[in-house]
Amino acid sequence: MKQIHLAAHFPGVNNTTVWSDPRSGSHIDFSSFTHLAQTAERAKFDFFFLAEGLRLREQGGQIYDLDVVGRPDTFTVLAALAAVTDRLGLAGTINSTFNEPYEVARQFASLDHLSAGRAAWNVVTSWDAFTGENFRRGGYLPQDQRYARAKQFLDTAFELFDSWHGGEIVADKESGVFLSDPNAGAFVHRDDQFDISGRFNVPRSPQGRPVIFQAGDSEEGREFAASTADAIFTRHGTLAEGQKFYADVKGRLAKHGREPEDLVILPAATFVLGDTDAEAAELAEAVRHQQVSGATAIKYLEHVWNRDLSGYDPDGPLPEIDPELGENTIARGRASVRMFRDPLATAREWRELAEAKNLSIRELVIQVSGRQNFIGSAATIAEQMNELVQGNASDGFILVPHITPGGLDEFADTVVPLLQERGVFRTEYEGSTLRDHLGLKPLERG
Amino acid sequence: MPVHLAVALDGTGWHPAAWREPDARPQELFTAGYWRDLITEAERGRLDFVTIEDALTPQSSQYSGLDDRTDQVRGRLDAVLIASRVAPLTRNIGLVPTATVLHTEPFHISKAIATLDYVSTGRAGVRIQIGGQAHETSHFGRRQVPEFDRPDMRDPEYRAFAKQRFAEAGDYVEVVRRLWDSWEDDAEIRDAATGRFVDRDKLHYIDFSGEFFSVKGPSITPRPPQGQPPVTALAHARIPYTFAARSTDVVYVTPHDLGQATEILGKVREEQQSAGRAGEPLHVFGDLVVFLDNGSGQAATRKARLDNVSGAEYTSDARIFTGTAAELADELLALHEAGLTGFRLRPGVLPHDLDQITRELVPELRRRNAFRAEYEANTLRGLLGLSRPANRYAVSA
Fold first, then answer.
1. Searching chain A, which residue's CA lies closest to the CA of residue B217?
2. What is the pTM of this model?
C-alpha cells in the first residue's frame, strides 16, 4: 500500500476562501497561521503551504474587492511558524522574477537552518509587467523566456546552496580554527540572466537545500519538474486525468536519471465534510453559494467576456453579446484568465448549458467554476482519497480549506484517523526533515 | 527620563576572538536555539529591543574585500528570519533586524517588516544599512560601484558616492513607509450586503517615482499593528545624520567622550530641524562596545587576553568600554544627561557581556531610578514612547 502525503494550504486570496461565514477569522493575524499549522502538525501532515501574489488584483482598472485581500511576507511568516511547530514542513511560494538568487538562496538556507530542515520552495515565474511595477527592476519577460529564466535562477540558487559542502564549520576553540576551508561559499555563475560571483554567506543547511516544488502544467513546466523538482503541485483532481498526468510526469524522470519516487505528485484539493454524504452534498451547495455571490458571478463572467458586465443581473440570463476578443485586459494580476483560450467557444458552451438547465448567471458560474474535489462523510472522503493514491492518480493532496483558520480541524479529527486505520497515513512522524516526510532520499553533500 | 537600552547581537559577540571563550557557542550559531536564548535573556533584562546584524557578504576584518581568514566567525543567517523565528517565543522585547538597501527591494522589505510586526504583535523595527561594497555588489551583478579602501568622508570621491547612496536609502525608506500606510487600518470591511471584503477607497497606490526606482503599490500586506514600525540607522558623519534625521525614529551614534556626544547631538538636532521634524521624537542612542566584569580591571584584562588570542588589538567605530557595570552606569548616565536618549550596547562576548548587561547593569540603573522595572508597553513604539502615527493617506474625518 502506498503511503498518502498530505499538506495544508493556507486559504488563498480568491473566492474559494469564504470570508462571509461567521467562523471565518483573520487572514493576517499570526494566530490564524499558527492555528492552521498546528492543526496540520497534530494530524501529522507533511507540510504547510503558502501561495504568493506580489500585486493586488485588479479588475476593470480597480482593485478587486470581493475576495479576501492581504497576505504576509512568505519567508517571515514561515520562520515564525517554525517556532510554533516541530516537524511540519514549511513550504513557500517565491517568485524567480522579482528576486535575486543570492538573496533568495540565503533566505531559504536560513529558513532551513531555523526550522532544522523543514523548508520548501515552490518556484514560480511571473507573467506580467503589471506586477513588475512594484519592483525596482520591473519584471516583464516574454512567455518563451519565463521557464528559461526560472531554470537559470534555480540552477544559480543550487550553486549557492552547494557552495558550502557541509562540515566547514569546525569552531575548534583550542586550535582556533573556525572554518576548515577559506574558500567556503565561493561561487562564480555566468549566463545570460545572471553574472555573479563571490562568497555565499550561509553554511550548508540541514536538508542541503529546500525541497523544490513546481506548479506548472505546460509542456515546459512538466519537463522542468521532471528534471529539477522534488514535488509537483497540480490541479488534476479526477482519477482519469490524474492517472494520465501522473504517468506522463513520472515517465519523464528516467531520462533525467531519476527514479519515480524522486518526484512526489500532489494535486490541490478542496473538500466538504458532513456526517452523511447527503448532508455533505447539501453543505457543499451552501458553500458554493457563499463562494459565488451575485457580484462575484458577474466578475467571473467578465474574465471570459473581457468587458464590463456590471449592468447585468446575476439572477438573470447570460449576456447575449459576445466576448471582446484580443488580449485580456479586464482582469490583471490573475493567472486564471488564461484558462479561457477560446472565449467565443466558452461563451457558446455556457449559454447552451444555461439554457438547457435554465440557469441564471450566478447558478451557471456556480456550476462551471471550481467545484469541490471531495464531498462526503469522513469515510467516503477517506475512501476516495485512498483510491486516487492507490490508483496512481497522485501521491497525496494539498488540502485547501475554505475557512480560515479552522477549516482543517474536522478533517484532522475525522478523516485522518480513518486513513491511519487503513495503514495508509503515518500515525507519528518518522523523520525530522521535510525530505524525510516526503520519502525523498537525502541529498549528497554539495 | 529613564534610559532606553538596546543590545546589538552579532555572531558570538563583537570581539573577533569571542567565539573561543569557554561559554561561547560557535557551533550553535546557525540554530534557532542560540538566538532564542540570547533574545530571551535580553527580554529578562527588560531591554527595549535587540538589533541583529546582517550583511549580504561574509564577515571580513577589512573594509574592502574578503580576508580569507579561517580563525574568525564567518557566515550568518538572515536577520529578519532570526527575528521572526524568535518573535513567537518572546512577549515584550522589540526585534530590530538589519536590512541592506542597495541590493534589495523596498517592496519585499516593507512587507517583511510588516509581517514581523504581525508575528510579534507590534514589536518590529528595522535597522537600515546601506551596503554597497564591491565584493557585495558582485553577488548581485546589477550595478557597478567604485572600490574604496575605507569609508573616508574627507575623500571627495567617497563623499560623492556616500551622498548618492544615502539619497537612495532615503527614497528606500520613503517607499517602505508609504507601503506600510498603503492600507488604512479599517480597509477590511467584510460587508456582506455588498459582497465586498475590502473598501478599495482605503487602499492606496503609493506611486513613488524617484531617481533610483519607482514603486506602484499598494502593499500586499495590510498596515502593520504599529502602523509604522520604528526605522533605525547607524550614523557617523554629516551625510548619514541628514539621512537619519529625515528618515528614522532612532539613530545610533558613536561618540567616544562627552564632548563628542554633545557635538554629534548638535548636528543631529540641527539636521532634524532642517528636515522639518523639530517637534517630532527622534531618539539618539549612543553605541558602545562593552566588556563588563565585576572585579576592578578584570574586563580590561579579559579584553587584552582576547586581543592576544586574535593577534591584534580590537578597535571599533564605537567607544570600547571595559569596566564594571557600576562604572558603565556612571558613564551612560553622564551621556544621557548630555542628551542621548538611550544606548545600543554591543556585547564584546556572548553570552557573557549580555548577561552582565541584564544581570548587573540593569539592576544598577534601576537602583538609580534610570531604568524600567517592568515593561510598560507591549509594542516597540510604546517602549520608545512613540505614539501610533496617523496614516498619511487617511482623510481625517
1. A134
2. 0.97
